[in-house]
## 1
Amino acid sequence: MTPVTRTIHLRDLTLGYERHPAVHHLSLQITPGALVAVVGPNGAGKSTLIKALAGVLTPLSGHIEGLQREHIAWLPQHSELDASFPIDVRGMVATGLWREVGALGRFTTAHRQRCDAALAAVGLSGFEARGLDTLSGGQLQRARFARLILQDAPVVLLDEPFAAVDQRTTADLLALMHGWQSQGRTVIAVLHDIAQVREHFPQTLLLAREPVAWGATAEVLTDANWARAQSLHEPFDERAGECEAGAPGAGPRHPHPITTALEATP
Ligand SMILES: Nc1ncnc2c1ncn2[C@@H]1O[C@H](COP(=O)(O)OP(=O)(O)OP(=O)(O)O)[C@@H](O)[C@H]1O
């Protein structure tokens, strides 16, 4: 695994679509090996942030530093696309090796063995030749985690990885995630299950189009911070223009200071 030697810095980051901001003025730093949850109301900008970290959404303003695309493994929100793709389980999982194998590279016996080992690690031995469309939702999510294993990236981005997944599968995938962290990887996950966040994630970012609180999970997930997240989120205008101080719907620049429960040390 390529070690990450750099801290991830988000500097006054504003993200959006066609100049309409969805996340405003986010500044924080994430140290290598951190296990970070991103939470907030629906539409708070969590997936938008993950897409920007993954490098598929260019910031409207501000900067992301310390992240390179080849250092990232990204699990987007569960999509029907994976399931409908006419490919078998091993073939889908093997796409996790594309950086190594490349478009013209040869898929060797060693690659095949690594695919099968990754499938074994997620409890899918024996499923190698099955079509993706024959898998249950939980089995498909296990296969997507097997692909992440093969990507072998120092930074793992997970967007609602346990949505619509049963308890047993969630427990197995959480164990894998903890294993990644103990190997020194940074894991950043969008989650809705707050009990799960409290139990498994030492650090949390509470987002409501702008950062509400960031730091130690117990200090971030307070009733007061949730109330503030709701109150900040509700007045936002979906069609707000560019992010300007005082612009209607754009959100004033830092109307409240971000609650920083701790500086971002693991
Ligand atoms: N491709 C897009 N084009 C235009 N607007 C978008 C696009 N994707 C997201 N948005 C808008 O950006 C805002 C933030 O969306 P985002 O998906 O990041 O929220 P979220 O916090 O992940 O929500 P949820 O918890 O419901 O998944 C929303 O208002 C959404 O409508």
## 2
Amino acid sequence: AVYEQLSDLTQTTFDFVIVGGGTSGAVLANRLSAQKDYQILVIEAGPSHKGVQDIQVPFLWRSLIASEYDWNFTTTVEPGLSGRSISYPRGHVLGGSSSTNAMFYTRGSKDDYDRWARITGDSGWSWDELLPYFKKNERWSPPAEPRNTTGQFDPSVHGFNGSTFTSLYSHVQDIDARVISAAAELGDGYEYNIDMNSGDSLGTTWYQGTIGDGERSSAATSYLTDDVLDRSNLHVVLHTIATRLVASNGSSPDVPAFKQVELTGNGGQSIVSASKEVILSAGAIGSPHILLNSGIGDSKDLESVGVNPIVDLPSVGKNLTDHPMWNVSFLANTLETTDNFTTNATLFAQALDQWTTDRKGPFTNSVTNNVLWFRLPDNSSAFEDVPDPSAGPTSPHYEFIIFNGGSTDEPRVSTALVVVSPASRGELKLGSSNPLDQPLITTGMFTTPIDMTVAIHAVRSARQFFSAQAWDGYVLGERGPTAGATTDEEIDAVIRENSISIWHPVSTAAMSAKDATYGVVDPDLKVKKVEGLRVVDASIMPIIISAHTQAPAYIIGERAADLILQEWAA
Ligand SMILES: Cc1cc2nc3c(=O)[nH]c(=O)nc-3n(C[C@H](O)[C@H](O)[C@H](O)COP(=O)(O)OP(=O)(O)OC[C@H]3O[C@@H](n4cnc5c(N)ncnc54)[C@H](O)[C@@H]3O)c2cc1C
């Protein structure tokens, strides 16, 4: 059942209490409640996703940023971003960020996960062992606008019977053919890659999104369907914030248990208990925030804001890693840009009408039809003095997201550039002892020189890409902030002044090997030094993947469900 408010909840003890009905949390809620004997509570701060048009229509995802479906976080002053603070959206709705994101479906590379397996000493986190979970999560489907997709994806790497719909971009754009021609013309590094989700993502690829029949597919629409929500042993309470976990005696005096959760909702407070486990799936901001509020973290930091330290676990909130993004943009000889939907209300109404009537047209697309993934050349001098931060030869250093827009003043074609294997790290700390205050979030983006070296290289490579003959007569000259920046110093300054996050914070409750002296959770996702508590969401990634982060959030949920069910079945 779904409860709109905390006071509707009549039960206070459950087998499992899941904090956060987001991407990983919804997967867990589904899998654990499939066991009819288990009573499951899901606590979600946001409202339901149901009937919200901006969530359903793929093209409208941008309007969810800074809406009631967003936590609306802001970072602290960022040292690597010219001292700017940036907005930091996170989904605040059932389905979490999978209900508000740009729907890119990218798994990352084989090397990304094999590195996880090495760091944790658990081969269960390797690419080969996770591939079945990717397939279990996925329900590959044809694009909403029918066309021959042969040669645009590799069916052998996809799942066709899972929960979350994925598909290729739907609506063809006039720039698509030029992107493919430009890549073919340039060759080296731009090679066509039939499927970026095969474990090797490098090269020129077609967008795949968590979209089915022209509609967003989220963790809520795919794992919390009506029949799942109707299960009598599943309880989902909305509009309710988990503020703290309450410590009790564990099985030995020096290991406390954290099986009670303090909740705030509709003016009141209450405490719920898990007889088996509490599972934090509140995301890379929410989960470490709750741990810190509960006295689990760096004891000195906690004392400094007046929180009583209970478990000294200094890695909580540390290692925050994210992908910086900025644009390189060109004046374009076209009348067809996606900015027209912003400037022309009639066109917007027509496109929305087409989507509403038959789930076709430009609003079935997210933002791009082509995504390109690159490594710096093997002989690059960039790595003479510093280690290569990427996981290995199948992991890209940077990404292009090509889109036919970029300005509401003039027609443009642009690429968003993203550093996808960053070395920079940020952190999340408490600013006060009030659990309802925002945490202090610092992404740390561009605080290591190697990330800027990659970024400057990426800008030059974007200029090379758009100077290919395939763009003759279409691309009319660079515009926007990077135009005119030629020296490394000039490009560096423009990047720092204009980069934002592509909203992929991870690693704030990082997994490490069982005997490691750092890290927050062990390879079974159990919080170290305590009992009865796991973290299951994007915060457990030991190192960020070189891709967008929702696909791993889904399979972290899938694998965790198996680990938990196996443990309690024993
Ligand atoms: C604007 C945006 C665009 C993005 N675009 C893409 C993309 O195109 N492709 C991609 O792969 N990734 C994208 N991402 C990232 C991706 O969506 C996330 O990495 C992933 O969904 C995270 O899953 P999660 O389970 O860790 O957290 P979430 O899905 O964010 O779930 C956390 C849930 O916990 C709830 N919660 C938090 N704190 C509390 C609390 N104290 N009490 C109760 N509930 C709480 C939240 O409301 C939320 O529902 C994007 C993210 C954003 C914000």
